[in-house]
Amino acid sequence: MSNHTALIVEDERDMAVEIGDLLGSMGYGHVAIDNLADARRLLDEGEFCFVLLDLQIKAEKFSIRPRVEAGMTFLRELRRKHPRRSENDMHLLPVIVVSGHAKEHEDIVRAFQAGANDFVRKP
Fold first, then answer.
1. pLDDT values of the chain reduced to their tens digit, one per residue, 123 residues
2. Which residues contact 108 (CB under 8 A, 6 or more apart)?
3. Which is nearest to 34 in space by CA: 51, 53, 48, 49?
4. In this structure, how many other beta carbons lie within 10 angstroms of the beta carbon of residue 120?
5. What separation, in Å, do the N-terminal and C-terminal C-alpha atoms of the chain show?
6. What are the DSSP E strand ranges found in the chain?
7. What is the pLDDT of residue 1?
8. Global confidence as pTM
9. 122-37-26-120 Cα dihedral, nearest 10 degrees
10. What is the Cα–Cα distance from 3 to 58, expressed in whole angstroms?
């Protein structure tokens, strides 16, 4: 895997494809996954330069319903495993939360408190 590969954790296939196409146009490779269990596995196996994380994801591949708490769990786990920062105090593995399900201000605040570097609301 290249050093310029993003991990996309997104439960909506069409959105994952659009994000992947955008990243490709900017010269980034990407790996897309739709659930917490596979995101954990991929994070352990691969070297990613950043993560684009939807908060509302499924816990397991065959889970019936995606939940915001699954995305928050992954964010907290990711920060425990990758807490390192540069000399400029920037995370070495940035996480950008991309979510349309964070309609409550509280979810945005919780994402930043859990270690998100930025938050982008989906339209």
1. 446 899 999 999 999 999 999 999 999 999 999 999 999 999 998 889 999 999 999 988 888 888 888 999 999 999 999 888 888 888 889 999 998 866 668 888 999 999 999 999 887
2. 102, 119
3. 53
4. 10
5. 31
6. 5-9, 29-33, 50-53, 95-99, 118-121
7. 45
8. 0.90
9. 20
10. 27
**Closest-CA residue to 78 (of 103, 110, 108, 41):** 41
Strands 29-33 and 5-9: parallel
Distance CA 12, CA 101 (A): 12
Q: Judge whether 117 and 96 are in contact, CB under 8 Å.
A: yes
**Could you tell me the two tokens for 107?**
């979810």
From 23, 24, 28, select the one nearest 5 (Cα to Cα). Answer: 28
Contacts of 84 (CB under 8 A, 6+ apart): 91, 92, 93
Calpha distance 83→93 (Å, rounded): 8
